[in-house]
Please model this.
Amino acid sequence: MRLHPLFSRPRPASWHVFRSDDRLLLILLGAAVGICSGLAAVALNRALMAMLAWLHPYRAQAWAFVLPAAGAALSSLFLTWIVREGAGHGVPEVISSVSRYGGLLRLRSSFSRLVSSCLTIGSGGSAGPEAPVVMSGAAIGSNIARFLTLNDRQRVVLVGCGAAGAIGSIFNAPIAGLIFTVEVILGEWSAANLIPIAIAAVAGTQISHLLQGNQIPFAHREFHIDLSVVLASIGLAVLAAAVSLVLTRTIRRAHHLAGRSPWPTWAKAAIGGGLVGLVGLPMPVVLGEGYHAIREVIEGRFASGLLVVCLAVGAKVLATALTLGSGGSGGIFAPCLVIGSLTGRTYHRLLSLLRPHTTWVNEGCFALLGMAGLVSGIMQAPLTGIFLIVEITGSYEVILPLIIVSAISTSLCRYVEPASFYLRDLMERGQLLRPGTDARVLADLRVLELLETDCISVHPDMRLGELVEIVKRSRRNLFPVEDPRTHRFLGMVYMDDIRPYLFDPLMYDAVLVGEIMDGQVETVAPADELTRVLDRMDALGRFNMPVVDEKRFLGMVSKSTLLDQYRKELMVQTYHLRT
Amino acid sequence: MELSIEDIAAALGLPASKIDRWIRQGHIPLIRSGPLCRFEPEALRKWAAQNHLSLCLEGGPPSDCRPLAAETLVSALTRGGIYHGIDGASVPEILAAITARLTFIPAAHKEELLQRLLERENLTSTGIGKGVAIPHPRDPSGRLVEAPHIAACFLRTPVDFRAVDDRPVTVLFVMLCPTVKAHLHLLSRLSYGLRNAEFVAFLKSAPSAAALLEAVAAVEGQLDPTPGER
Model:
């Protein structure tokens, strides 16, 4: 393939100047990435609509529960055999890549989740198309960055641009795209990131306007909000937090159960899909991404019995857990919104039963608040919840109770679950490294970067008198002992241990280094993580430890050098936040 | 400007692997072009200053970059000078005569220097035996000099200095150093020379400046094969 002259080597000098000041570059590339991920979102949306129309005649059949099973199995086979990727929601993979691998994502990720989630959701699986689109957009951004040989920081910004464009496009919600990206994906608020991501969110949304028209996904008539609603929203927040926790736990439970079963992944996905289909027979609201159900609830067309709504919440939680836990492909966004709206409606029915004489605001309002509560609770991202709901429902008038619900729901969930649904696995694996944090700095610094090589090696047959001569020349008060022939590391001599004898010439010929060395000293390998090294130093009460690779002494690693390098690293890593 | 990663790492005093990683992660304003790195020197200097890193690119200010060469007796003697025919019958008289003749001390500071030398002599004698004394202020890190100075002074007549071996002193090395480290370093070199009986006998002959420097250089030559170079 012949590349455009701009991209082929050698590049003109102006290209390098352009790259060194990357603000303009990132804005232009951000717009391009936003457009691409917006297109991906539109494509998935259209494909889902086509699948829906195509399968619609079969939904009424008694055997319709086979459809989600077949869809999930096909989706699993596609992921395992054709693109060779794991299942998963998509968003944790993007966060992991940003956090640990400088935003590197495979090219095939830009379409793999679109196909698999289309199969899962289109056939009736209970999952959302948002996370697959986020993954796709992020992979597009990552691969554009890789094609242009950009560095990690720039690549991470473009990954964020892809995510923002995707959310902006699929929900027609640019602010939610921007906030979600910064709050959940990147975890870092800086002007250098915000501007390209905002541009990408606008570009993605604009693409969706051009191709699908500018419509608010869940429009409704205006609500009249008074103090009673604001106060009542506190109770809804508690309920939403409880449902969030139940949903998180159920999905994880289903995931563990599926993980322990011996069947092949496609069979597990098929069983999960089949069970979802069975749940869907009496309760079709649980099938698919469920946007139509949200519209029904907001417009007040959904069943009004408290028991029915309660059952619907439970059924949707179960169906989502079965779909995602068993290996179906899709995200948690749309199920959150469906469950949230149903929770809001449940709460409204409860209030009406308890206080039948009070005229409560339209139940649609509580549906919105419930959606915000669920999104905030599951993702532990209050701003995403607030702005997403305001944008997708076009209802700024509910902002006050919305903020209350989001804030309380997030706080309660965080109290019980230390990490959000997306981050929990990453945190357990120690892979959540947000920029500018202790974990990030320690993960980036390598043992070899801290190596102090100013120690003078001695050998075990040396007499103390010879060691004293070396002490005179050495700048350190510790001496590695090596085998003179094989250069194998044998142990350390610490000045503190031998100080009393250094000034006693009678001992000079009587004592050998091999007799005074510490042969049991604990060592560090060059590949060790610094967090582990520091833990060992603390446990042993030492300020330094020898670094040994394949039995050869390389140097020392000490807390004082670590502090020096740690500060430099922290300054350099947060430089773009200060400028 | 283009340099290799190793050169940039050396200029920043950091390991090359770290610079390599910073380029990959985009934390440093460098762009890889083949085996070299391309950068704007001004942008890199600004970046280094804002991150509290010291950067020593070629052509930068020398005081920042080059480590001080190890001090030698010859260079300190060259700075301090050699003085013959000092007159005086007692320690204060001799020190006053020497202070008056030292050319590298401004007249305004001569009184202060004399007081500090006398103070030090009052504590214990600086006569270290074999007819040699090394008068110096108690606190070497004074503001009197910016570089180590040694003034070699030869007395017209031997004087009792209350030295450790009670022998009268004929040769004085007045040592003025800005740091304790330089003081100890030069003192250790000097005492190495004074262990050599031939060198001490040579000093007693009150040699000329050129001969003295030559002999000192020879003594230092035994200490390090390439004195004064790094």
Observations:
- Residues 232 and 401 of chain A are 9 Å apart (CA to CA).
- Confidence is low (pLDDT under 50) at residues 1-10 of chain A.
